[in-house]
Design a protein that fits this description.
The complex is a heterodimer. Chain A is mainly alpha-helical. Chain A has 3 domains: 3-93, no CATH class; 102-227, no CATH class; 249-471, MetI-like (MetI-like fold), CATH 1.10.3720.10. Chain A is 68% helix and 3% strand. In chain B, 34% of the residues are buried. Chain B has helices at residues 2-29, 33-41, 48-58, 74-77, 80-85, 102-137, 142-155, 159-173, 188-219, 222-229, 234-254, 266-272, 277-286, 290-318. The chains are: A mainly alpha, B mainly alpha. The interface between A and B is large, with 43 and 47 residues.
């Protein structure tokens, strides 16, 4: 099957961001202080487990950012035509989930629709059979529970096998660490230096990663083996698979959390350092700017800006070729607005820190040598602020993911056609009032979002503890 | 003191002017009133007459900044900028799309907003401080560790889930409180019970963790060691000495939000159907009532600036070492 690659603006920016992070990581490796701090994060078991979970989310998000348009069947000789629909690599992987839609609500792992309907050739109202959920069972449903149990155990067993293979692999490459742990265990006296053996500490972190991987693999295995025949999280009002929706939501959350910082950081770093180092009327102006911006309540400023952006998008339909492009533009604009409204806090922090740095000896020495202002800011001030920038970056991420849900609920979030946690919650909210209750969309959105935000929070805490010189006590 | 307050009030004026200019630019320059009319009327019904009528109804049919057709001072006053933005300083917010006076609407809706926000704030503060103090009392034990984990987990849950889950559990399963609505007088208590509880639970994770670090910072001070050296039991050290000193950063830190309590909470009010300012704002956003959103932005920043002023004053009251010049 041939296809045309589509590079949405958000995809391009996301890849730029990834490249920037890789570049920064390479730069940080050469800096002793940063390498030491990252070393502390790498030795923190909780942080590494959280990082593993985050890495899986990022992987899903990246897969969902490789967009293409499938080529349509065409007459030989005719010019190639491509589908209007823009799909991603994740859609291709999950094409089973995406295409096996039902008519309307169905409970997780169900074989019948959730509501009774009048069947053809009959006056009675019955629960209609699902088109895809449990279709392999045929008419005989007596094996339903057995089939679920079988698939469950098969998925768990496969996941366990993969994990054990992984452990074997790791234990071979990390033999020394494991030997160190074994020595401590055999000697039977924990503490007394043995607990501080760097190899033992490192193996704890490796163990935490392995445990996190086990949990992820088990969930994946179960989802894969059950998802082959059922809707693991049920289906929503229009019959879409809820698991598919949840996986698609991840990209939106990640984009909001990361691209916003791409807007916010340059503004905050530039203005914060300028205000702190140059001083005088520049300082007054920048302080005035951020005091004014931050005195408007965040949600209201975002709401006002988004309302205005909607007007622009609605009055200029000719800018966007496909609906995916329009939704993408709206997502980017939301990131832009969030970034424009949230740089003030970081800028204030950076200004304060720059004021302190300006008086230190090495900056004074550079001034005495006649180094230019901008060279001092770039070479002597900026590197010493990187830890604040990094902490702000990781601390903001989880807040932005949560903010997306709230903003989408308020009606100033992502485009209603964009699949996101916010739109999922918004549509699922009324379903709780149904009798009997439709709970699975909400449960799915809750668990995915909780896992993502919790992992981000735990990782951010570890990064802050490792980088913040004050928190070492 | 009085001179300081007056100076701070004067300092607030340029900031309010800035907010005003920003909202003016956002609402009238980024998009012309014609664009807004076209969007609100929808694609089908757009005719030049309809746009003119829409603009005239809202008073948007004037020039933006300079009215060349008028004479005298009217060249400045007969403009959108003067009639919509400058008059906000006098408390005149104009009319909403449904024809009601926005200023009066705000005055009547402040009550219900405050009835929810104030108990949530006070109770939330109390619960968070008590919880943080408990964790500090058992610091470096399993209880402290699991308490911090609980806080992080609670912070990781979206506020939407607290409300949805709380409404479902308390109102639908246990039938303890009405699911939504509002009443006047003592009747209000039964409607307020659930939103206040949910607001407290939703906020306790983040604030308790923050207060815990403040307490821990305080506990390393010299006076604490002295108190322990005197042989005071840990309970007395914590409650009589540490609590009192740590309350200063905590209380001065939260003073800034007190005036904004008037604004209410967007989510809580819209979920519980409380006729406060939060639900007013949400309705205006959904109906794209630009006049109301503009007024709320302005009022919000006024209240925030008042909060900053109160913060500075509370520093002097709480800590005699701070002197305002």
């Amino acid at each position: 099957m041939s296809f045309q690659i589509v590079l949405l603006w958000s995809d391009a920016l996301l890849f730029v961001l990834i490249a920037a992070i890789v570049g920064l990581a390479l730069w940080a490796r050469r800096q002793d202080a940063l390498r030491a701090a990252w070393g502390r994060v790498l030795k923190d078991g909780v942080a590494m487990a959280a990082a593993t979970v985050l890495a899986v989310f990022v992987l899903i998000g990246l897969l969902d950012s490789l967009h293409y348009r499938a080529r349509l069947e065409a007459q030989p000789g005719a010019a190639a035509r491509y589908a209007v629909e823009v799909n991603s690599a994740l859609d291709a992987l999950l094409s089973d989930l995406r295409q096996r839609g039902e008519k309307t609500y169905s409970a997780p792992l169900a074989t019948h629709l959730f509501a009774k309907e009048a069947l053809e050739n009959s006056t009675q109202r019955e629960f209609p059979r699902l088109k895809h959920g449990g279709a392999h069972l045929g008419q005989d449903l007596s094996g339903h529970e057995f089939d679920i149990a079988l698939r469950l155990s098969r998925g768990l067993a496969a996941a366990l096998a993969v994990w054990l293979a992984l452990v074997a692999l790791v234990s071979r490459t990390r033999k020394q660490e494991f030997m160190a742990v074994l020595r401590v265990m055999r000697s039977g006296i924990p503490g007394d230096g043995a607990g501080n053996d760097p190899k033992v500490v490192q193996s704890k972190a490796t163990g935490a990663v392995l445990v996190a991987l086990l949990a992820i693999l088990l969930l994946f295995g179960v989802a894969l083996s059950l998802g082959g025949g059922y809707h693991v999280f049920g289906t929503d009002k229009v019959g879409q698979d809820v698991l598919y929706l949840s996986l698609k939501s991840i990209r939106t959350g990640l984009l909001i959390g990361t691209l916003t910082t791409l807007v916010m950081l340059p503004l905050a770093v530039l203005l914060g350092i300028l205000a702190g180092y140059v001083g005088g009327w520049v300082d007054d102006l920048i302080q005035y700017l951020y005091t004014t911006l931050s005195s408007i309540p965040g949600v209201l400023l975002i709401a006002a800006a988004v309302l205005m952006m909607q007007v622009i998008i609605d009055t200029h339909p000719q800018w966007f070729a496909t609906s995916a492009e329009r939704a993408d533009a709206r997502l980017l604009a939301l990131c832009l607005i969030l970034g424009m409204t949230s740089w003030t806090g970081v800028a204030r922090l950076l200004r304060g820190e720059t004021l302190k740095l300006r008086e230190l000896e090495f900056v004074q020495a550079a001034q005495a040598f006649g180094v230019g202002r901008f060279a001092i800011m770039r070479r002597h001030i900026l590197p010493n602020l990187m830890h604040i920038v990094l902490i702000a970056l990781v601390m903001d991420f989880s807040g932005l993911v949560l903010a997306e849900a709230v903003l989408s609920y308020v009606g100033v979030g992502v485009d209603p056609t964009t699949i996101s946690f916010g739109t999922m919650i918004n549509t699922a909210r009324m379903e709780l009032a149904r009798e009997p209750m439709v709970w699975w969309s909400l449960a799915a959105a809750f668990s995915f979002m909780f896992a993502l935000v919790l992992a981000a929070n735990l990782f951010a805490d570890a990064v802050r503890d490792a980088f913040d010189p004050r928190s070492s006590t | 003191m009085l001179a300081y307050v007056i100076r701070r009030l004067l300092y607030a004026i340029p900031i309010l002017v800035g907010v005003n200019l920003l909202t003016f630019a956002l609402f009238f320059v980024v998009n012309t009133p014609d664009d807004m009319a076209r969007m609100q009327l929808g694609v089908k019904r757009v005719t030049p007459e309809a746009i003119q009528k829409w603009k005239a109804e809202r008073g948007y049919d004037k020039p933006l900044l300079w009215n060349a057709t008028a004479s005298g001072s009217a060249t400045l006053t007969e403009t959108i900028f003067f009639s919509k933005s400058v008059r906000m300083f006098a408390g005149d917010f104009g009319r909403a799309d449904d024809g009601r006076d926005i200023a009066r609407e705000i005055a009547t809706r402040m009550g219900p907003s405050l009835a929810i926000a104030l108990p949530t704030f006070v109770l939330g503060l109390f619960v968070a401080i008590a919880f943080a103090l408990l964790l500090v009392f058992f610091r470096a034990t399993a209880l402290d560790f699991s308490g911090v984990v609980l806080c992080v987990a609670m912070m990781s849950i979206s506020g939407l889930f607290y409300i949805i889950g709380g409404q479902w559990l308390v109102s639908k399963v246990w039938h303890l409180a009405p699911i939504s609505g509002y009443g006047g007088g003592f009747d209000a208590a039964k409607f307020l019970f659930l939103p206040v509880i949910i607001g407290v639970i939703g906020g306790v994770g983040g604030s308790a963790r923050w207060y815990r670090t403040i307490f821990l910072e305080e506990i390393t001070r010299d006076y604490v060691r002295t108190a322990r050296a005197k042989g005071l039991p840990e309970r007395v050290v914590l409650f009589r000495h540490v609590l009192r000193n740590a309350l200063i950063p905590i209380l001065t830190g939260v003073v800034v939000v007190i005036p904004t309590l008037f604004m209410g909470s967007l989510l809580t009010e819209s979920f519980f159907g409380i006729p406060g300012l939060g639900s007013y704002t949400i309705d205006a956003i959904n109906a794209q009532d630009f006049a109301v959103v503009r007024s709320m932005v302005f009022i919000g920043s006024v209240l925030y600036i008042v909060g900053l002023l109160l913060t500075d004053i509370s520093y002097t009251l709480a800590d005699p070492r701070v002197r305002l010049q």
